[in-house]
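Retro notes - structure team

What went well: the batch runner handled both jobs without manual restarts.
What didn't: labels got mixed up in the shared folder, which is why I'm recording both outputs here explicitly, each with its sequence directly above its tokens.

Job 1
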Amino acid sequence: MLFLDQVAAVSASLIGAIVALIVIIIFLAYSIRIVREYERLVVFRFGRVIGEKGPGIVFIIPIVDVPKKVDLRERYITVPHQTCITKDNAPVDIDFLIYTKVFNATDSVVQVQNFEGAATGIATTTLRAVIGDIQLDEILAKRDTINAILRSKLDEVTARWGVKVSSVEIREIIPPKDVQDAMIKQMSAERNRRAVVIEADGKKTATVTVAEGDKQSEILRAEGDKQAAILRAEGLATALKTISEAAKTIDAKTMTLQYFDALKQLGSSPSTKYIFPMEFVSMLKPISDFVREYTEAEQGSPNPPK
């Protein structure tokens, strides 16, 4: 009987130890939290914020402490198509992205219930106000301006929520169908105009190039003719100089023989009329003197002069 009482006591102690161990394990499971580098835990104790904890291993008191995990990484909010009315009463559909980052985890939990919904609501109302002051033709050209205005307006509001709006990017702007058709026609007309202008500029450039080529060709041709004329003149001057130098050494008899040769060639030509200059009579005198001397020498001497 005593033995049974001891066994029962040991069993009760063992069961108690096991139960205590299970309670401790459950307590530690709920008490230990692992917080990543890009996360923070905002801990509420009996409804009061006691601060931010993390990163690393964080201990909390189960039931007493209620943690709220906050992601500090930059993220984006997609705002779907919003129909806005421009200054000239044209409806346009615009969708855009909002890039945000939490810099104060406590304020992002305490100061706003649903940050994404609140930011989307402010962004859409601000967008309608901004688009209402811009005409349709200027919206596409002022995309960067609209982005900057939206980012500035959102940042003013979200700063008190512990959130920083880093950028706002308009993703798509869809004008009305008739405006799209007009834009397509305008774009086509502009391309045709550019094609005509480019073709005209090409023809103009080609004409100028051809004219410049002709001009250079004429200049080179004239320079060539000039050089050829100079060379011919120099050749003729050299020839005349050579003839003049040779003529100084020719005597009357040689000249007479040249005249006879010229007369022989004239006689063999088919011409029937010959024109002799007045100086030709004076040229005949040396010939007659030479003939007379030759005749007298032949009559008076057995060896006539040669």
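Job 2
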Amino acid sequence: MVASSLLAHTRNLDLVIRHVLAGLGHGIHAGVERGAGVEFSEYRAYVPGDEWRRVDWKLLARADRYYVREAERDSHVAVWLVLDATASMAEPSRSIAGLDKIAYARSVLACIAAIAQRQGDAFGLVVLQDGRTAFTPAARGPRQLHRVLAQLEQAEATGVLPDAAALRSALHFARSPSLIFAASDFLDWPSPLSEALLRLRHMRHDVRALLLQTQAEVDADFANGAYRDPEQGEGQFGFDQSRQGAYAAARDAHFGAVKAQSRQHDVPLFAARIEQAPGDVLRALLKQSGRR
């Protein structure tokens, strides 16, 4: 399994995708249609649970391995990637030099884009940073993947979220069925982003949220004894053992409210530490997206 240290040493998302997706074996959704009238797409290795009638027996005789014929038709579900690239996403890991939240979010969303491209889905990207929304319209194919990866590689953590009106006007893609993956630290909640995600869910889109934290945030243990909120301008907060309890209580209350509201609105929220292997996080996130 690829470790997060890879993400700290490269911004080449093609390289990240190649390593993280090796052997992952997951699709994003079960939106393809099978049966009479669909066209043959490809072979794949048999896995327990596949129907025996879909095994290609002639190929078995030649290759001495079981292969299943995959046939699929466009499911008309667009995949949308939403990246919170505000200043707080620059928060670094205290244990892996060079790794921060934005690098981790870029990598996970890039892998989802690559899977969407392989499945033949249309996919697009929304980047939120510095009070603005950068929008890459949904499309299919390898060229679209290159466009999306280029935008992700350029995204830097800066500024604050766009306001609610600006974000609402950017969500015109919501007119068609969509599967939406949003990566953020959700330190702002409620926020224009949270309101947009809940609104999309109310419109019956399939919304999935990835909540990113550092191990230091989870443990309330900042090695240098100080913490600065990059979205609050100047000022650094002293952080010693006497303040750990208050920090942990405030953190638990905040994220408890985030999780409760997400659950209330049927938005699966997956919490991950950026020090975790990205393949493990991606596998869990995609497993959630198949539960409907």
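One thing worth noting from job 2: The radius of gyration is 21 Å.
We'll revisit the folder naming next retro.
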